[in-house]
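User: My advisor, Dr. K., asked me to get a structural model of this assembly before our group meeting. I'm new to this, so sorry if the format is off. These are the inputs:
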Amino acid sequence: MKHRLMLFLPLLGFLLLSGLLYRGLSMEPAGRESAMIGQPFPAFELATLADPGQQVDASLLQGQVTLVNVWGEWCPTCKQEMPQLQALAQEGVHLVGIDYKDKREKGRAFLAQYGNPFTLNIFDPEGRLGFDLGVYGAPETFLVDADGVIRYHHTGYIAPHEVTEVILPEVARWRE
Amino acid sequence: MARMTTWLLCLLMGVCLPALAAEEMRAFEDPVLEARYAELTAVLRCPKCQNQAINDSASPIAGDMRERVYQLLHQGQSDQQILDYMVQRFGDYVLYNPRLEGRTLLLWGLPVVLMLMGGLLVFVLVRARRHAAAQGLSDSERARLASLLGSDAADDSRAGRESSARGGQRSDT
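Assistant: The format is fine. Below is the predicted structure of the whole assembly, which you can bring to the meeting.
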């Protein structure tokens, strides 16, 4: 009798494997965690979008919790994301933008059209800072704590419901 | 016919040409660096793509990574340093060969363990089968066999002779 039950072992193995693979099918491939979590924000020295003469570096992110959003005029999803960023700014979140692989005039026109929730925009035309952040598309959002350490990463679009469900709780968590 | 084949071949080659354009031409003075570049861009995976090496992808980030590999090679960095540099930014995802560490032990070890278990299973099964064949029937099994076959096969040795005789007859015809 025991021997007979053993015949079900291959079926059991198959079911286990199917379950594992089925779960993999419904997983978001881009949803993997950033390698930068827990790392200090990479060093950089770049001009701001508003003023080519004004150089900023990573010390910009010291002293308060900052949400760093990577965007570009060429990125359609970024346009859809702007209302959510405006809402976050109204909630008192300190926002810094990185205008990624963009042209200065286009970046400025984007902000003029869709609004500017950022206290400052870093202009990164060659994507060098983006590369050091492990950015491979836009939008991407990083939460940096008051010590300049990256604490949370959001790949892609921040949906309206995620403003209150995900982003604001993360900001509150790292403000403590 | 041969001419047509030639024409077809030319046409097909023309169709394939744009695929080569994904990767830019790079000048290498040192053939060793060139070989290392080819190797590194084949084992680094494009983070934007599902399953493409950076030497195979036309996505902008793959181009940036190739450029960075090229620069780092010329700065004299080792292959391992370059791989670490990429992992530091883009995570383990960019390595086609995951590193051997605590977290990936199961990944690397499982195939070996499964092979060993399979081998052991085959060994045990074969031995058990041989053992059973060599042992023959016990007294109680003999009695049970006799009752199953009926009274005419009660004598075990006679049954054996009959069957071999029948076998002999069959080979004659």
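One thing worth pointing out at the meeting: Residues 38-175 of chain A form a domain with the Glutaredoxin fold (CATH 3.40.30.10).

User: Perfect, thanks a lot.
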